[in-house]
Amino acid sequence: MNKSTSTQTNPIIYVAMAADLLHAGHINILKFARELADSNNGKVVVGLLTDSAIAQADEAPFLDYEQRKIVLENLTLIDSIIPQESFSYKDNLAKIKPQFIVHGDDWQSGYLSKYRKEVLDFLHAHYPQDLEDKSTHPALVEIPYSSQINALGIKKAMNSLGISTAMRQARLKKLLTLKKPLRILESHSALSALIAQNVYVLKNGVRVEFDGFWSSSLTDSTLRGKPDIEALDLTNRLQSINEIFEVTTKSLIYDADTGGRVEHFIFSVKTLERLGVSAVIIEDKTGLKKNSLLGNEVAQSQESIEEFCAKITAGKRAQVTSDFMIIARIESLILDKGQDDALKRAFAYIEAGADGIMIHSRQKSPSEILSFLRAFRAKDSTTPIVLVPTSFNAITATELADAGANIIIYANHALRASFVAMQEVAQGILEHDRSLEIESKCMSVKEILSLIPGTI
Ligand code: SPV
Ligand code: MG
Question: Where is the signal peptide (predicted)?
Fold first, then answer.
């Protein structure tokens, strides 16, 4: 690139990056930008992706914005650093009007290509070059991407080492500040948790994945052939969480039913916290607990506000770290007690120390949940709200987040799906008296043998 393409006296050379795991590929790009700046009397400006920009499209970064900024500030290759609030370059391009943009050539296809197009559109509009091919511009400089070393690869390798108990536990609270909504999938075994850990889809250039696991009392009980009435003891459930934690890195929210007696709940809090669980949800029911989706079809009673507040406060006093969260679940709508009761309880529970509120509903329509969110958010804009849209399943997580929710839990779908699949195959074998016909409904033997690293 020489001066002839330059139309600014001191052009800005813009490089956007997350720089969470700084590696040779980054230095390569920055070195190139520096040379371009030096030969054009320009400046290298880095658009450093903010924590929420990274979290929206990926996992939360290992290092936060300020830590990453300190690392970059000490590189002589860079003149200044500005935040880039999303993967889109648009805002910063409009703000600083760079003349050159440097990026690895890996964004020519795939989900990043739409951001590349934004950059090209900007360059064509501001620095017309009369180029026939609008998919190129001399001021977009693309450096051959190093496939041997890249952030995703390093991250994969780091994740395969596992995660410390403290880091996993703290991650949920951190993610709540960076991303909305958080999507949580019920995981009842290490294998189902591996699915929740690894599955993702690309939507409009953004990677959407689950942010953690839900340890459900319903599915943990059903899996063991027991009713969802607090019949399973904590030790039993901790066993599967331990197995889940052995092979994953995401955070877990624990369904503790009513939390039991206050005297017992404080021990549960300590145990869950020690294991690395991020949050516990307790529901304001008393007596023999039945599943909420049964509503008033079965006898269920709600705890008094005073008693439930005392349980929350005792739990908060028992925890050791500041990262562990106790979330209070309100059953007023489930038990037809109305919105006023639900709101009164929500504010009382927060006053007692609850870190978040879960409001549950068994209606097909989300209207009572949406009106609760409106009334609650009019008074409290910050306390995290958790929803479990099993019944009101036509509304999307994004719509619920837009209405004020923070965490959306898909509470039983993994187990429900696996039951249907297993039942069909079991029946099929009996019907055909052999397994040939149901082979297509199963993963291949080759696949199962290569699913778990180390098997072969
Ligand atoms: C669970 O998953 O066990 C729950 C959510 O508590 S619900 O089944 O909807 O009550
Ligand atoms: Mg439950």
Answer: none
Per-residue pLDDT of 123-162, as tens digits, reads 999 998 878 888 889 899 998 876 556 666 777 777 777 7
CATH class label, 162-410: alpha beta
Q: Model confidence over 339-379: pLDDT tens digits?
A: 999 999 999 999 999 999 999 999 999 999 999 999 999 99
Ligand 2 center from residue 216 Cα (angstroms) = 5
Domain boundaries, the chain: 10-150, 162-410, 415-448
- The answer to whether the CB of 185 is under 6 A from ligand 1 is no
Tell which CATH classification among 2.40.40.20, 3.40.50.620, 3.30.1130.10, 3.30.1490.190 matches the domain 10-150. Answer: 3.40.50.620
Q: Which amino acid is at 211?
A: D
Tokens 């562990």 found at:
324
- Residue 187 in contact with ligand 1 by CB distance below 6 A: no
Tell me the whole-structure pTM to 2 decimals: 0.85
Burial environment of residue 57 by CB neighbours within 10 A (0 to 12, 13 to 18, 19 or more)? buried
Catalytic residues: 228
Cβ(269) to ligand 1 under 6 A?
no
A 10 A CB-CB count for 91 gives: 13
